Amino acid sequence: MTEIPDIQIPDTMRPVDGRFGSGPSKVRSEIVTALAAEADGYLGTSHRQDGVKYVVAAMRNGLNELFNAPDGYQILMGNGGATLFWDAATFGLIETASQHLVCGEFSNKFAKAVKTAPHLGDPDVIESDPGTAPSMVANPNVDAYCYPHNETSTGVALPVVRPEGGEGLVLVDATSAAGGLRFDANNCDVYYFAPQKCFSSDGGLWLALASPAAMERIDKIAATDRWTPEILNLKTAMDNSLKDQTYNTPALATIFMTLKYTEWANENGGMDFVAGRADKSAEILYGWADASEYATPFVQDEALRSHVVATIDIDDRVDALTVSKVLRKNGILDTESYRKLGRNQMRISMMPSVEPSDIEALTKCIDHVVDAMS
Q1: pLDDT for position 1
Q2: Which residues lie closer than 8 Å to 49 by C-beta, 6 or more apart?
Q3: Could you report the per-residue pLDDT of 134-186, keeping only the tens digit for each?
Q4: Which end of the chain is more exposed for a tag (fewer CB within 10 A), N or C?
Q5: What is the set of domains in the chain, with CATH numbers?
Q6: Alpha helices of 181-232 — where are they, by DSSP H?
Q7: Taking 80 as the threshold, does the pLDDT of residue 79 lie above it?
Q8: In terms of Cα–Cα distance, which of 265, 100, 67, 82 is closest to 176?
Q9: Closest CA to 306 of 172, 181, 178, 155
């Protein structure tokens, strides 16, 4: 095991908050304080009674406002996370076959889930190298087009669009994008996510902005004889969501923290406010990497560079993992690269809860560590 260099970063140089993880991501201290203040009357109470249902309703309404949801769109929810939702979608949203854009680990996982589903045809998979993004191709044999808004493993952000000339539902994995990247909800039918990233919350819940067409598809499949495990039944999730509850006990703290982030965003200007914070952080971080002698943005196409998750390649003369370990010893956390990508790089969250000033401080700390290592 390589010994971690004993490099001290001056207190005056360090970020005020040292959390830069891409998920779970930084939880705003104000949210934790608010939860503690209301915990006695909220945590440990029935999720089918008004106290919790009021919070769920406020969260669903707030999300509709934040996403500028078109008429008829609804926020659906259920226990689990995006991984569970992929399996649920194989039962309740895809009729026969789907197309998948694969540009990293997480977009690939949904394609694999569909491929192993015995009741569905083989998926139409369009793949590109990590750090790039493929494009949809209209296919009359598929009834759902699936892709990520933000590929968390590589820091690539794809536009939320419908396939030109193609018909079918558009299912967008927004786990690390929702609440941080702008999008037009008219361009998709299901915008699904888990709130432990941009929403500065915790795990244990999936949420989805669903169009009328998506809800009709859920009803249509539910009326067939397709066997579906109840915990993965989107019809059950939809029916409960419209009553501001879940099929079984949800993560109450997660719901509350998601609501508080949504309130913070909406009270300060909505999506322009939170996405604007991410834009500022991205300007700082990519600007630093572009000017650096040893750091380079992994995503070469500037139009595809995510403004919520940055992947920065480090010159082979510098061991990126050692840099991250030194940062961790100094209280600066979770800058390591995505493990399966296998590159000498750093992955840094620029999600809206991260202060842009802390991103700037982080760049100075990285420079300090690299200088001390050379």
Answers
A1: 53
A2: none
A3: 999 999 999 999 999 999 999 999 999 999 999 999 999 999 999 999 999 99
A4: N
A5: 30-267 (3.40.640.10), 271-373 (3.90.1150.10)
A6: 212-222
A7: yes
A8: 82
A9: 155
